[in-house]
TrEMBL record:
ATPase that binds to both the 70S ribosome and the 50S ribosomal subunit in a nucleotide-independent manner. This is Ribosome-binding ATPase YchF. InterPro entries: ATPase_YchF/OLA1 (IPR004396), Beta-grasp_dom_sf (IPR012675), G_OBG (IPR031167), GTP-bd (IPR006073), P-loop_NTPase (IPR027417), TGS (IPR004095), TGS-like (IPR012676), TGS-like_dom_sf (IPR023192). The keyword ATP-binding applies. One of its GO terms (molecular function) is ATP binding. ATP binds at N11, V12, G13, K14, S15, T16. CDD domains: TGS_YchF_OLA1, YchF. GO terms for cellular component: cytoplasm. The lineage of its organism: Bacteria, Bacillati, Bacillota, Bacilli, Bacillales. Residues 2-258 form the OBG-type G domain. Residues 280-363 form the TGS domain. Belongs to the TRAFAC class OBG-HflX-like GTPase superfamily. OBG GTPase family. YchF/OLA1 subfamily. Its cofactor is Mg(2+). It comes from Pelagirhabdus alkalitolerans.
Length: 365
């Protein structure tokens, strides 16, 4: 399963946010494929469509889809020098598929800031620099391997050498790989290097609880937005403290509290949705009388692989995917009417599943 790692300097609110994640926690019985590890929190993906489908079908059970956040421990500063806990930090980042970078934007004189003052850009640069240095090492090693061949005019090696040199130059200017431009062909090679600064990233600004409604007037948030824009990265504003309070509530209580705060959606829910997108994930649904359920798939997969997410037998014996789009089904009001309207398609093994598809798989056992 894909996972997003939560990183940040000490005292920025990571643990507070991670605790909110585990509090809000999904019932792990529904998600046997998820990791059981104190550093992993399973979150359910909020999806209005699932509620609508439940109203429509009236099943015995409704199960949202879920994914994992990993709390990344270890020491940041000096990590690229490869010592102890720092090394651990880098190897944890290597294992995640996307990064949620938490930065402190709240003022609180009682809580020490590791570098003395609240300065989110300097915080971001501190972590990014360690990652860039680790990538620089990766790339330098590679260069040593291809350099000689490139000098002997080996075509492959020359292409590699060019790309690696461009990366190296960028890293030396302290640019992350994700903001260095490459052609599509070059990008295929770059992806194969599994660089830390190539991983998709979003920034989470942790603001004071009284700033939540007017976060845009927080100058730190503005600075993070400007920084993120250079990398085309998204910024999510939260108050970790408020999130830990919201996480204790459910259903109506939660809605009432959000209303009191004057926000339509909790920061955590926004973060979950944004991270889901960042990971390149999308949702299809199954809707039967027993159970209405959301399933996560990686964008771009074909119908048999999508079936395999439910059960390997579904993939092995795949015949057809009876598919209707969520919008068509809701407009029709029932599966019967959607069928009459010819909106339920019989898709074969080459069909690329789309976000919002409601699917009934037919398969041989
Ligand atoms: P971590 O080291 O990044 O995991 O940070 P923690 O989550 O442990 O938070 C460090 C301290 O900052 C704790 O005492 C938290 O209660 C406090 N803290 C976290 N978020 C906020 C916030 O939004 N406002 C204020 N005032 N304090 C916060």
């Amino acid at each position: 399963a894909l996972t997003a790692g939560i990183v940040g300097l000490p005292n920025v609110g990571k643990s507070t946010l991670f605790n909110a994640i585990t509090q809000a926690g999904a019932e792990s019985a529904n998600y046997p494929f998820c990791t059981i590890d104190p550093n992993v929190g399973i979150v359910e993906v909020p999806d209005e469509r699932l509620n609508k489908l439940t109203e429509l079908v009236n099943p015995k059970k409704t199960i949202p889809t879920a994914f994992e956040f990993t709390d990344i421990a270890g020491i940041v500063k000096g990590a690229s020098k490869g010592e102890g806990l720092g090394n651990q930090f880098l190897s944890h980042i290597r294992q995640v598929d996307a990064i949620c970078h938490v930065v402190r934007c709240f003022q609180d004189d009682n809580i020490t800031h590791v570098s003395g003052t609240v300065d989110p850009i300097s915080d971001i640069e501190t972590i990014n620099l360690e990652l860039i240095l680790a990538d620089l090492e990766t790339v330098t090693k590679r260069i040593q391997r291809v350099e000689k061949m490139a000098r002997q005019k080996d075509k492959e090696a020359m292409i590699e050498f060019d790309i690696l040199s461009k990366l190296k130059d960028g890293f030396e200017e302290e640019k992350p790989a994700r903001s260095i431009e490459f052609t599509d062909d070059q990008m295929k090679y770059v992806k194969g290097l599994h660089l830390l600064t190539q991983k998709p990233i979003l920034y989470v600004t942790n603001v004071g609880e009284d700033e939540l409604l007017d976060a845009e007037s927080n100058e730190h948030v503005q600075k993070v937005r400007d920084y993120a824009e250079q990398e085309s990265a998204e910024v999510i504003v939260i108050s970790a403290k408020v999130e830990s309070e919201i996480a204790e509530l459910e259903g109506e209580e939660k809605e009432m509290f959000l209303e009191e705060l004057g926000i339509p959606e909790s920061g955590l829910d926004q973060l979950i949705k944004a991270t889901y997108n960042l990971l390149g994930l999308a949702t299809y649904f199954t809707a039967g009388e027993q159970e209405v359920r959301a399933w996560t798939f990686r964008k771009g997969i074909k119908a048999p692989q999508a079936a395999g997410i439910i059960h390997t037998d579904f993939e092995r014996g795949f015949i057809r995917a009876e598919t209707v789009s969520y919008d068509d089904l809701v407009n029709a009001g029932s599966m019967g009417v959607a069928k009459e309207r010819g909106q339920v398609r019989l898709e074969g093994k080459d069909y690329t599943v789309k976000d919002g598809d409601v699917i009934h798989f037919r398969f041989n056992v």
